[in-house]
Design a protein that fits this description.
With about 350 residues, the protein is an alpha+beta fold. It has a single domain (about 1-340), classed as Deoxyribonuclease I, Chain A (4-Layer Sandwich), CATH 3.60.10. Helices cover about 25% and strands about 25% of the residues. It contains nine helices and 15 strands. It has a six-stranded mixed beta sheet with strand order 3-4-2-1-15-14, covered by helices on one side. The protein has a five-stranded mixed beta sheet with strand order 5-8-9-10-13.
Length: about 350
């Protein structure tokens, strides 16, 4: 079984309101990339992955005039993908849904959100992800109300072999200081965004603990916009959101595992793996970052799973296939992460 996570930059721009693909010479949301170029590149990447299930981050928009599931299924049909059915959970207003594209011959899936509905009043006890989580973020004796702009997708999944899994697809808060006019404003926004990102990860960790206590086989995957040692503000808060979700201060049977996160935690200096590549204009260079993870529960970690980052320059199989290497660079600023496991 191959399970993947893939953040597709501006995926929604590639579809008309009726869900049909736009394959023409107009610009996509990517720099110097047309819609036809990005569609073709994405088709090549998804075909190469050949995954049983892909947690698509920044999936096509669902709104009164658009259907993200229909759009993804039309994309799958266009490129004859086994993963031909789509599932979206709670819709959001960002034009960036979280969706599962899966092979219906291998998997039975359902959106199965846990936790209580809160309304605007909120709750301390890991409420449903479309609700409100109450937490004091800045130790001022006043509780903040935390929400997800992109509520995680909770999936109850059963494989054709009868194995039951829980999947949680995640797109955590970005820490980038969008809208800042000066350095001081950038610092203020960055710290506020990090507080919210950490609060979302604390909320998610509470859900993880519920699953592990119940003995569920669990995979948490997606874009965390965070990682060990990723930015200077981590020292201010002591740990990253990724470390919180992994539960590194918990007993071994209550921890999740991702080998790339483990490597980043033990090797602060030197070569590091990356799942995303961004161009930093004011420095005229590319920045590689580890943002995308596939975390597994202890029972799954014991079954000899194999992780693979489809980085066009770091992975020989991707680099040696020129068309795949070019497709990975054209398709998105993130690269897929796959997990192969016998389940």
């Amino acid at each position: 079984m191959r399970i993947a996570t893939y953040n597709v930059e501006w995926f929604s721009n590639l579809f008309a309101d009726d869900g049909s693909l736009i394959e023409d010479g107009t610009w996509s949301g990517r720099w110097d990339v047309t819609k036809s170029m990005q569609v073709s590149a994405l088709g090549r990447v998804f075909q190469a992955m050949n995954a049983d299930a892909v947690m698509v981050i920044e999936a096509p928009d669902t709104s009164p005039n658009r259907n993200g599931e229909q759009a993804l299924e039309r994309f799958a049909k266009r490129f004859n993908l086994r993963a031909s059915r789509a599932l979206i959970g709670f819709h959001n207003h960002t034009q960036q849904e979280i969706a599962l594209l899966y092979d219906p011959a291998k998997l039975t899936v359902a959106h199965d959100p846990l936790g209580a509905e809160t309304g605007k009043k909120g709750s301390h006890d890991a409420p449903r992800f479309d609700g409100v989580f109450r937490l004091d973020l800045d130790i001022d004796a006043t509780e903040d109300k935390i929400t997800w702009s992109k509520p995680p997708l909770e999936v109850a999944l059963i494989t054709s072999a009868g194995t039951a899994l829980r999947l949680i697809g995640v797109h955590a808060k970005s820490k980038a200081p969008h809208g800042a006019d000066n350095d001081a404003e950038a610092m203020r926004i960055s710290i506020a965004n990090r507080r919210k990102q950490l609060a979302q990860c604390i909320w998610l960790r509470k859900r993880v603990e519920q699953h592990l206590t119940a003995g569920d086989s669990l995979i948490v995957l997606g874009d965390f916009n965070d990682g060990p040692g990723l930015d200077v503000y981590e020292k201010l808060f002591g740990r990253s959101g990724v470390e919180i979700v992994l539960g590194l201060d918990a007993e071994p049977d209550m921890q999740l595992y991702d080998p790339h996160a483990a490597q980043a935690l033990t090797q602060r200096i030197g070569a590091r793996v990356a799942t995303a590549r961004f161009f930093v204009r004011h420095e005229n260079r590319y920045l590689n970052a580890l943002l995308d993870y596939v975390m597994v529960s202890p029972d799954l970690a014991a079954q000899n799973p194999r992780w693979h980052i489809w980085h066009p320059f770091d992975d020989p199989a991707c680099f040696d296939q020129t068309d795949l290497r070019d497709a990975l660079l054209t398709a998105s600023d993130h690269f897929p992460v796959t997990l192969d496991i016998e389940i």
